[in-house]
Write a structure and sequence with these properties.
The structure is a homodimer of 447-residue chains.
Chain A: H1 3-11, H2 15-22, H3 27-36, H4 39-48, H5 51-60, H6 63-72, H7 75-84, H8 87-96, H9 99-106, H10 111-121, H11 128-131, E1 137-139, H12 145-155, E2 164-168, E3 174-179, H13 180-185, H14 192-195, E4 197-198, E5 203-204, H15 209-219, E6 223-227, E7 233-238, H16 239-257, H17 272-299, H18 301-306, H19 314-337, H20 346-375, H21 380-410, H22 420-443
Chain lengths: 447, 447
């Protein structure tokens, strides 16, 4: 889609040309174009869209733009847009709109749909219920393939996906599934019960979205049925929403790893106060823990003042320790999230991190000895103190970094909370204690 | 699938019962079960699988298990498995197998397929070519809907997805697409050219997998066509592979954020030497940079030795600075990756981070002043030095942390390299310089 050309046509009010060209564009591109327009122009352009694609374009728009268009549009226009939204998009949209827009919409909604909307709004955030939609094809097992294909032809245009059909009994219990591929390939007179897959994979309305995403990944699904507590089929979740969930969960882990409270909002649209609040809590916690590191230094003040040279190596030792620990924790956290590691592997991780750290620590310690003793010509005890601390720090950092996320997982905590900043803080303290004890030992300093 | 029960049946050699029950299980679950068996048992169990699902189960197995089964299976068995693999899985598999297994397989492969395999093996890693498969439905625009449905019925069983059909001309140029949903819903006598979507979204064989994943996310696709440099349709990529790509790219970003060289291998299956190599390079680089931080301390040694109390606050200041910077960089990196931020937003980010850091830094500085002056009863100049350094450090850390990833992106570098360890190292040095200058100023110490 040529944004510049369309913009020019819009400015020149050549609406007919725009209309004739709209058919060639992807709805996602049209939405992107609308995002770049000014408020009033956005509505003008949106009104040019043919009815068939207006709702789809609308569902791609940002919440802010949706709100602006909803505020400017008249009641009938709004009713049309909302009527054609898929139910999951509709619920998401209503959740975000200001009260007066919601009111405007609900006036044009049937009693039954209003009830359903309220029911969906009540599902907990991040649950299957909050992700699912109701536009799926449900069929009875007694039907033949040709009868089902007829049903799809009649009801299909309004379904979010027709690629899997769900077989239910009269109490709406889920009995099995059959894919459109199988329907198309099967003999038209076959009965559904003879070819359907029994024992289908499904989730409960209250299941967590992260687990659902794992199920999609494991079974390479395009959609999954959702049942309520009475095992009745109430909705489906489609892969496009799961892709968003995967990115959301990853973002959350990234934030945790950097000690930021997670957020659903886009950075650029979030206010300074809200962003500050999400950051200051962890900074405070970590600052207080780092204060203890300061107390360690203070309690060894006499060691430090008698060999002031020791202080010059503290940043390097603390940094390397922190980095070594965060490397191990990041790898282990990620492996747990991807399902490659679990608690039963704890000794394997311990043994692996021990060997890695002995190897890496020895190399770093050795290089430091060369630099400090031969190149910078410090005394032998100082070089030895720094090198030995380096080795021990790397070993302890990597073992702690590797163990803590697994232990957190076992304690049903999120492994990602054992992130870089926490590991660094722990390792810092350990590093300093080792350093000063080695210093007293090798340098024969008494406290 | 009840693993324990199946295991018992296997041990009791009740193969017929197992066979009769296999139909109720998901292929992904069967593969998971096979992973837990011993080598010989795995082959025994694998031989029980009906031919229709054997290849699918095989494609879900880990590379190690695939290699073991391939080594133990006879040539005919292996030929059967490989023949039914989708082409993308086949290429991935051949890429990983030892030479003698590959030889065993290629003996049973036609000349034409061998050529195609070699062509696919030549595509660069992480390119569209390395992800695509050749089992797609291609049709001519002159056909009617019913002719196409007939064609799908004939060739469909061997296609990875039949949910999108690709319309090509006689030179195999991609003209348009039509979904199975549209085919099923359309009148059977309609010509394809009248209902196909022209201007389809496609990628080139050499496009990077990260960009392709972004395209999937933007347009909510289930599959995307891949064309070669002459614009001929050569394959398609399906959403299940893209979900894997998304997780792979996220893992890479997690590793970069923790200063680990990225890797495709699972942690638990990677050797100690390989893991050490992936970690030591960055540790070395960061250790050397941290050495400079040490030089800063050394050059202010006289300041430090005249007021030794100053050293106790260094870890807290450095840690808080590093954490404040890594918070900003993680958020900005993630926003860039998700396409929410670009270079044009650089001033917005600057202004936002400046305000956040002034707010957060003031609070932290103020709390430190209270603690140091009132609670711990240090002198006023010392409390002022620490508090003022805290404020300035947080401001500089957040602004640097926010700016560097955007600048990296502009310079066509991966923003994720501006990760926690690098930001911390830069911020450490800046923090110390500020600290010592404030100390000299407020404490009237001359160097």
């Amino acid at each position: 889609m040529d944004f510049e050309r369309t913009m020019q046509l819009l400015n020149e009010k050549k609406y007919n040309i725009i209309k004739s060209e709209l058919g060639n564009y992807q709805t996602a591109d049209i939405a992107e174009f609308i995002e770049e327009l000014e408020e009033k122009q956005a509505l003008v352009f949106f009104r040019l869209l043919p009815k068939e694609i207006a709702s789809e374009v609308f569902s791609y728009l940002s919440v802010d733009r949706q709100a602006e268009i909803s505020a400017l549009a008249n009641e009938k226009e709004l009713a049309n847009i909302v009527a054609d939204l898929y139910f999951d998009d509709k619920v998401d949209y209503l959740e975000e709109m200001p009260a007066y827009v919601v009111k405007k919409i609900l006036r044009n909604t049937s009693e039954a749909e209003r009830k359903l909307i309220n029911q969906f709004l009540a599902y907990p955030e991040n649950s299957a219920g909050s992700l699912m939609t109701i536009e799926f094809v449900d069929i009875k097992k007694e039907l033949t393939v040709s009868e089902v294909l007829d049903k799809i032809r009649k009801t299909g245009p309004n379904k979010e996906t027709i690629y899997t059909c769900y077989v239910t009994d009269s109490w709406r219990h889920l009995l099995g599934t059959i894919s459109l591929k199988e329907l198309v390939l099967a003999d038209v007179n076959t009965k559904i019960e003879d070819i359907m897959h029994t024992g289908p994979i499904y989730v409960n309305t209250h299941d967590d979205q992260e687990d659902i995403a794992d199920t999609f990944k494991k079974y390479d699904l395009l959609a999954i049925p959702v049942v309520d507590n009475e095992n009745r089929l109430v909705g489906i979740i489609t892969i496009d929403d799961i892709v968003d969930v995967i990115e959301e969960e990853n973002t959350e882990d990234f934030y945790k790893m950097a000690a930021v409270a997670p957020s659903d909002e886009e950075y650029i649209n979030t206010g300074v106060l809200a962003l500050s609040r999400k950051r200051i809590i962890w900074l405070l916690v970590l600052m207080i823990s780092a204060t203890f590191t300061g107390y360690i230094i203070k309690s060894f003040e006499s060691t430090l003042s008698s060999v002031i040279a020791l202080s010059a190596f503290i940043p390097m030792l603390m940094n390397t320790g922190g980095n070594a620990g965060s490397q191990a924790s990041a790898i282990v956290i990620r492996s747990i999230v991807l399902g490659e590691l679990s608690f039963k592997d704890i000794f394997k991780v311990f043994w692996k991190e021990l060997r890695i750290s002995l190897l890496v620590g020895s190399v770093l310690g050795f290089l430091n000895f060369i630099r400090i003793f031969f190149l910078e010509r410090y005394s032998f005890p100082i070089a030895l103190t720094v090198s030995a601390t380096m080795l021990f720090t790397v070993v302890i950092a990597k073992v702690i970094g590797g163990m803590l996320p697994i232990i957190a997982k076992k304690l049903r905590l999120d492994p990602a909370i054992m992130s870089t900043p926490i590991i660094s803080t722990i390792v810092d303290a350990v590093t300093l204690i080792i350093y000063f004890y080695f210093a007293m030992w090798f340098l024969k300093i008494s406290v």
